[in-house]
Amino acid sequence: MKANSLLKGLVGAAFLLGAAVSAHAADTLAAVKAAGTLKVGTETAFAPFDYIDAGEHTGLNVDLFAEIGKELGVKIEWVALPWDGVFPALEAGKFDVVAGPATITKKRMERYRFTPPIAEATIAILKKAGDTTISKPEDIAGKTIGVGKATAQLDQLKEFSATLPTKVDVREYPAFTESYADLAAGRIAGVANSLPNIAFVASQRKGTFEVVLPPFGKKSYFGFIGLKDADHAPLMDAIDAAMLKIKADGRMAELQKKWFGASFDTPDAVKDPAF
Fold first, then answer.
1. Which of 19, 20, 111, 222 has an alpha carbon 20 to 30 Å from 188's alpha carbon atom?
2. Does 68 share its domain with 181?
3. What's the CA gap between 262 and 83, in Å, rounded?
4. Which domain, by its residues, includes 138?
5. What is the pLDDT of residues 217-254, one digit of tens each?
6. Is 191 in the same domain as 235?
7. What is the pLDDT of residues 201-211, one digit of tens each?
8. How does pLDDT run across 101-142, given as a tens digit for each residue?
9. For 159, phi and psi rounded to 5 degrees?
10. Domain count, the chain
11. Which of 85, 119, 77, 80 is nearest to 257 (CA)?
12. Are 223 and 118 in contact (CB under 8 A)?
């Protein structure tokens, strides 16, 4: 009799615990809905995704999160900070999700949850226009190449450098805009970044920069980032659903054409990144 009572008590406690966890898990999405605001962290020096133009925050991320906000029924509040501070600030609860975007990698997926991809992130080289010493990616051997600090492009550049007869002199920058300035001034020979980024920069500064084709390394994708815990799962589920709807009805492709000049064929999810 006592055993039955104890068993019933344990079952009841487990039920109550499960209900409490379920209610807690819904808190993040409920809090965003209640506040009417989704806080989004990003850096504003990563054109064409996020950058400042004539004093205004603009880019693909701004347009895309405007659509996500419509789907969720909330306003978007932007929080700008240097890229190397984005992930610590996300974990400290300074905002709900990161726009970035970030390259989807195995290491990052162990700690964070990614949304559906928004574009390709395969790496390529930007050089000064008219530089005949670099006509293919392998020509950066022994040269000084800029790359963003704490980026997936940094890892890819180092991996590629190791395959060359003379290693690349890798120079890390807090923001890519600084590396483009050094390239224009002739202080470095090139910048390694994702193809969409440098293609946009080259298109904006014709006669100053050129893209070195083809891209190199493994094919990769950009996604937005959130926390992986149960508290944030309902919010990330809602953002994923909104993005897949935006992709299915053609709004995603329209925004890609607006900012990249072409749309990308991206998967709905990346479960096994190339690196």
1. 222
2. no
3. 26
4. 123-212
5. 888 999 999 999 999 999 999 999 999 999 999 999 99
6. no
7. 998 899 999 99
8. 998 999 999 999 999 999 988 999 999 999 999 999 999 999
9. -65, -40
10. 2
11. 119
12. yes
Spatial separation of the C-alpha atoms in residues 203 and 227, rounded to whole Å = 35
Pair (64, 113) in one structural domain: yes
229 contact partners, CB below 8 Å, separation of at least 6: none
Indicate whether 106 and 227 sit together in one domain.
yes
Instruction: Give the mean pLDDT of the chain.
Output: 89
Using CA atoms, how far apart are residues 100 and 43, in angstroms rounded to an integer? Answer: 6
Residues 6+ apart with CB under 8 A from 111: 228
Q: Phi/psi of residue 192, each to 5°?
A: -100, 120
Q: What is the DSSP annotation of 106-159?
A: HHHHHHEEE-S--EE--EEEEEETT-TT-SSGGGGTTSEEEEETT-HHHHHHHH
Q: Are 54 and 20 in contact (CB under 8 A)?
A: no
